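so the lab meeting is tmrw and i was supposed to have these ready like two days ago... anyway. pasting both below. for each one the top line is the aa sequence and the line under it is the structure tokens. i havent really looked at them closely yet so no promises
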Amino acid sequence: MNFKNTLISNQNTTSASMLVKVIKLGFPVAIQSALLAILALADVLMVSDLGQEATASVGIASKWLFVAAMIMGGMASANGILVAQYWGRNDRRSAKTVTLLAMISGAKILVLVSLVITFFSGYIMMLQTNDATVIELGSTYLWYSVPILILTHLLVITESALRGSGDTMTPLYFGSITIVVNITLNFWLIKGGLGVPAMGVAGAALATTISRLLQVVLTFCVLYSRKHWLFTTQILTESDKLWSSYKHIAIPSTLSALTWAAGVLGYQVIFGHMGTTELAVFSMIGPFESLCYSLFFGISVACSVLLGQSLGRDEFTNAHEISKFFVKAVFTLGLCTGLLLFFAKEAILSWLNLTSEELYPLASPALTVLFCFIWLRMLNAVIINGILRAGGDNHFCLRMDFFSAWMVGVPLTAFAAFVLKLDFQYIYMLMLTEELVKFALCFHRYLKCYWMKNLTVTTI
């Protein structure tokens, strides 16, 4: 009996210790992610006062930037995975070297992507809508957003290195400041004032560009003044092994992110061709959905960092216990979140300006569907990003993303929209069948434990 009591006491202590670590790592990431989602939502809400066309144009244009951002997201994910594992074995030189490799290689790609999106903006907008006003406004938004991808890439790679080393507060500090600046500039530039004419959609894009530049300057200047390890640690002179290791993770991770983002874009194309009203509703729900996921994004980052550091030290039993803790916690939290949001649905519809006679009949049932499935999306996000990818199981994630989106979700949604011509809420529901397929594939993979790998290589 004493042994049993001791075992229970140890388990409780371990759970409490784990909870403290999750809060320390995940809470700042969740707050920053929530602030970014609020910023995206603020863009849409302020632009929505200009009409459905403006709302739809920002929704479409921002989705193209979102797809491009998945390139940096995949590269940052690979960098964060390796930094966490090298940090776990106290190898700062490799952690800095891989961060520099990720930053340089990604910048080369994103310069080209930025130019393509800008110079072909009109044609890109035509893929998702036939509305000439929406096309013109969206093209203008993309032109004012030219530097955003490069600036954001520098930030996400730096932030992935900071988080991989256990520092989640520094990105939150700088992110919070620039988000406040961004929202302030939004009010000023979109509607005009103090001698500046109202810029509308262009003002939203310019506000984001200016604030992102400010964030880059602040982040690098403060880290340099602190003599941070990202500036003071020497890089490896021979980095071929490290580059090979990084590519092995980054290529499938980036392709997987692009496949998933292209799927999101595919859904937007479907809703866009259903009509401007449907596209406007879909564009309004998207940022709110991101806001809901922000807490779980912080949890998945905490999971990835803790797992990565344990795997880098070859502590596989501990890594498995960590993974079980996160799966149980996210499942419970996801159900509670969905229930809470369901009972607050009317207030949420009012907050999102979706209460008009034209928008409410589409938005209300769609939000009901979202709240019923939110636990599933949260659980998938943590299993995929927090567990499988933390152990480098990125090739499987690539196959899974392609199959669930392009063999199931997108074709089924398109068939329902254009052949069966179902109502908006049913099409929105069918879009979420992708999540059911993901869960079936990913949970089975998680149970097989293929992800429990030490990814570090001998570099010195």
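ok protien two:
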Amino acid sequence: MTDRAAAGAAFDADVMIVGASFAGAACALAAARAGLRVVVLERKVDPGEKLHTTGIVVREAAEQTWLRHAPAECFHRVEQVRLYAPSLRSLALRAPGYYFLTTDTPRLMRWLAAELVCHGVDLRLGTAFTGAQLCQGGWHVPGIGRTRYLVGADGVRSRVAVTAGLGRVRDFLYGIEYEFPGLTLPGPDALHCFVSKRLAPGYIGWVARNPTGVQAGLALRHAPGRTCTPDIDGFLQRVRHLLQIPDDAAPGATRAGLIPCGGPVARIARPGVMLTGDAAGVVSPVTAGGIYSAWRHGEAIGQAMAGHLLHGGVAPERVALESAPRFLTKRALRWLFDRLQFDWPFEVLLHTPPLRLAAERVYFHRRGVRAC
């Protein structure tokens, strides 16, 4: 037995990941497919329940990540963004070849959990992470065992971050989303985005068709210490006539939660422990690309842990830090939107080149955009 193998035999796992959503699953799949022993702790018994994500997947995630293997029934393709001013005047935006996928998110998360098991991950559903202690060469998680690496993919209120003394997410949006099963929308499929300082200060409202119906959400800037809940019912009352959502339509499911918007946390890793996904703040603060950035970061960490343990490669803690996207331009837009959001300039600028350029950066990731 080699020295590396002998050292590994003293541990119950090479990697323990807390959280089985997109970033945690990406990290687990990358590490397990490379040959590591991976344990994933997920507090939910059913990974498709009590979701917080909108589940909107950008083209890059659909084509360049493991999500490309998901069943087609999980997705609904959307090729247009319709942007609405506060008066409900609108602008249709397209980019040749670009698209979004809305998802049957519960089904997608259950498929993803099955993929983990299929690739040899020890997925422990209904298992909450309560803490960990440093041990020789790694971490000891009570009731679970010893691991070389601990990864926190457990959301904006990460217990792993608290346990390990890592950075905490400080800047948030707060969002609520309804799902209306069986509904459809009129006209060409689009991601409908609504700007309104009164209803969505600091962010937007949105409506889109998905594989099972229609999803509608509203998010606003979260102010610590002040309770402010998005008025999603007021938002729907204002826009339902445009999208032909019946007055008596009742949501079949509701999602709500905090959305990081301040960029990566100050301390994303220390020896033997790293954060990814929402816990690390590595989600885009302005656009629907959060799943993609979280996936790529989690995957990079998983590959780095395998490369380091099996081949003496670069330390994964360094990779966790260096591969974290900074979102500098989008964070600048976020800062401006927080402080200079007024309805009248948006009305004036709706059909102008500067606004179309901003939409290109936000929705289509700098690809050419065509306004209709």
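from a quick look at the 2nd one: The longest strand covers residues 172-181. The chain has one domain: 3-371. will dig more after coffe
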